[in-house]
Amino acid sequence: MVAAKSLVAAALLGLLVTAQSLGDAPTIRISSADQAKATAALLQRADLGAGWVGGPVKTSPLKHPDCPGFSPKASDLVVTGHADARYVFQQVGVELDQDVEVFSSPEAVQTDFSRTISPGLGRCLEYQLGKLAHVAGVSVTRVPFPPTGSVSAVFRAELTVKTSKGLGRLVSDYVFFGAGRTEYEFTVIAPADSRDQLLRFELGLARILLRRAGIQPA
Length: 218
Fold this sequence. Notes:
Blueprint: H1 2-13, H2 15-19, E1 27-28, H3 32-40, H4 45-48, E2 53-57, E3 78-89, E4 94-103, H5 106-116, H6 119-130, E5 135-143, E6 151-163, E7 166-179, E8 182-191, H7 195-212
Parallel strand pairs: 1-3
Antiparallel strand pairs: 2-3, 3-4, 4-8, 5-6, 6-7, 7-8
């Protein structure tokens, strides 16, 4: 299953960037203080435990997905800090991609969530994933997640992928939560047989980041 994952992992990790290529973009006004805040909100390798490798990576352009029937407005929102990280646990075939955005106000985070986190986002992810060359089938649903920060949501993609040995199955979780002026996103790609463990893993990481920000998780 690790081999199956490697065929589509890069495409999955870049999905939101690809999907966002035609979408509306927030206004970018990076400040040194808020850029430091975004960088400090990235996961550290020690947060993940033994077996993980990776760290901060170059940020991707910020634009919301633009799919048929889904094009949320973003240009009236101001992002003042932005940082990304990527980690891999090769032995078990899991990859984690993190994006952190600091907005000009807590209200901007709430507005972004209210416009973006909707059934339309799930349909958009399914539409984009279905266009990837090695994906033979995909379904995306919003899954329950404990209240995390001021706003939170998780969408899960169940994928059937084509490999040299036949068909394999993957799961890709898209985890979104916000607290104060900071918005967090994880994309976790893993073999399908690990699905039952992923939400607990993702919630644990979210709680680490909230505590680091001085916020007591629920």
